[in-house]
Design goal:
Elements: E1 2-6, H1 10-21, E2 25-29, H2 33-40, H3 51-60, E3 64-67, H4 73-76, E4 79-82, H5 97-109, E5 115-120, H6 128-139, E6 145-150, H7 160-165, E7 169-174, H8 177-192, E8 200-204, H9 206-237, H10 241-249, H11 270-283, H12 289-313, E9 320-324, H13 339-349, E10 353-357, H14 362-368, E11 373-374, H15 378-382, E12 387-390, H16 395-398, H17 402-408, E13 413-416, H18 423-429, E14 432-434
Parallel strand pairs: 1-2, 1-4, 2-3, 4-5, 5-6, 7-8, 9-10, 9-12, 10-11, 12-13, 13-14
Antiparallel strand pairs: 6-7
The structure holds nicotinamide-adenine-dinucleotide.
């Protein structure tokens, strides 16, 4: 098939590269000349394991085409995917300006006499795809035809390629059986060719597909906040929160994933999608107060890390605090709504001097967090620190030389915001150690 992706972010570029690797011809349309030139040279605008190789391989094979122009990609494609960002506005609502802007350009470039599926991968509120359809309809020539579909994306940064190759489900929201069949055909290799994996196709109307994405992210955020609430209660009542969560997670109705307490959720999706779902619900007169509590518990998880640091040092004023991990999770350089941002701001307010290290996210963090010392390696970051806070669970922190860390620190205090170390090992090594929920 010939496909076009508008947007080359985590979703657009990864999905485009995977479909190119499966043998499709894929146009990727951007709007920044420098980024398009970089992509042609194999320079990826963000860090995602395995992506550089996949992009280079398919670009060199002529299956991936990077361009600023809508033609010939859009008129030649059977499916045009919208994969641009939908960042949060101040109100919590998704910003849809770019989605509508590219919808107009898609309409203007549809092939006269042809048929195209316009499929939205971007996360958009219920009702948006119908608006996209109206915009495409108004901007297209009279003899071109199209159908609209909502095909929300569920990949996770850090494991985006394997998630795309092995989806748990493919949601296809459309009123058109023709569009549905074309989308099923495209996804067939992901659904049928995997030995170990069987994905489901979820057929639905547009609004259902749109809401599935928000419901999915909000439910996952709820699980994390529930785990953090149980962790907090466990600390207060002397229970081992990790065992409590293990104990409930074996119940198949609950499941063990996403029950790890810690420094809170972040990233480009959960915080924005939770806020957007509250706002969507309010538009329909429903007060989704559960999700306000989910957000509140998430904020508290970050404040708790700082409270523990204060308790360990007596007073944080003038004390050196080392923070390991800035990205919102390991294996990405994405700093959007990373818990480290709020934690560091709270530490700064208390007068702490902050040294940080992250294996990938430093350049992005420097754009957001100022007046702190960025270190080039983790041992440099912990030197002379009176307390060390683990915020992101990178493997290299798990494998760190703890004796060396202890010898470099001014005082051997560790707050483990991701429970990556074993409390008894830390005690035996002579650390004052606080995990989360233990
Ligand atoms: N990042 C994730 O893990 C993830 C997972 C599932 C769904 N989503 C959703 O997918 C969508 C895209 O997310 P992302 O993380 O890939 O965003 P991103 O910020 O990484 O990328 C957005 C892309 O849109 C491009 N863009 C912006 N304006 C444009 C324009 N006028 N014309 C062409 N391209 C333009 C940008 O250049 C960039 O390539 C969002 O709605 C997001 O909520 C993201």
């Amino acid at each position: 098939m010939t496909l076009t992706f508008i947007g080359h972010g985590y979703v657009g570029l990864v999905t485009a590269a995977v479909f190119a690797d499966l043998g499709n011809k894929v146009y990727v349309i951007g709007h920044t000349p420098k980024k398009i030139e970089d992509l042609k040279k194999g320079i990826i605008p963000f860090f995602e394991p395995g992506l550089e190789e996949l992009v280079k391989k398919n670009y060199e094979a002529g299956r991936l085409i990077f361009t600023l122009d809508y033609a010939p990609g859009v008129p030649d494609s059977e499916i045009v995917f919208i994969a641009v960002g939908t960042p949060p506005q101040k109100t919590g609502d998704a910003e849809l300006y770019t989605v509508f802007e590219v919808a107009k350009k898609i309409g203007e470039n549809l092939k006269p006499g042809g048929y195209t599926v316009v499929a939205t991968k971007s996360t958009v509120p219920p009702g948006t795809n119908k608006k996209i359809a109206r915009i495409v309809e108004e901007s297209k020539s009279t003899n071109s035809s199209f159908d609209i579909a909502s095909v929300p994306e569920f990949l996770r940064e850090g494991t985006a390629i394997s998630d795309t190759l092995n989806p748990d489900r493919v949601v296809i929201g459309t009123e058109s059986s023709k569009a549905r069949q074309i989308l099923v055909d495209l996804h067939k290799p992901l659904i049928e060719d995997s030995d170990s994996h069987k994905a489901f196709i979820v057929d639905s109307n547009l609004e259902t597909a749109e809401l599935i994405k928000y419901a999915s992210n909000s439910f996952l955020a709820t699980k994390i906040s529930f785990a953090n609430a149980i962790a907090k209660l466990s600390e207060l009542c002397g229970a081992d929160g990790l065992k409590v969560l293990e104990g409930i997670g074996y119940d198949k109705r609950i499941g063990r994933d996403f029950l790890s307490p810690g420094a809170g959720y972040g990233g480009s999706c959960f915080p924005k999608d939770v806020k957007a779902l509250v706002s969507i619900a309010a538009d329909y007169g429903y007060d989704f107060s559960l999700l306000n509590d989910v957000e509140g518990i998430n904020k508290q998880a970050k404040r708790d890390i700082v409270r523990k640091a204060r308790a360990m040092t007596g007073d944080l004023r003038g004390k050196t605090v080392a923070v390991l991990g800035l990205a919102f999770k390991p294996n990405t350089d994405d700093m959007r709504e990373a818990p480290a941002i709020d934690i560091i701001e709270l530490l700064k307010k208390e007068g702490a001097l902050i040294k940080v290290f992250d294996p990938q996210a430093t350049a992005n963090a420097k754009e957001i967090i100022r007046d702190i010392e960025y270190s080039n390696d983790l041992y440099d970051a912990v030197k002379d620190a009176e307390v060390l806070i683990i915020v992101t669970e990178w493997n290299e922190f798990k494998e760190a030389d703890l004796e060396k860390i202890k010898s470099l620190m001014m005082s051997p205090n560790i707050i483990d915001g991701r429970n990556i170390y074993d409390p008894s090992t830390m005690k035996n090594l002579g650390f004052s150690y606080e995990g989360t929920g233990r």
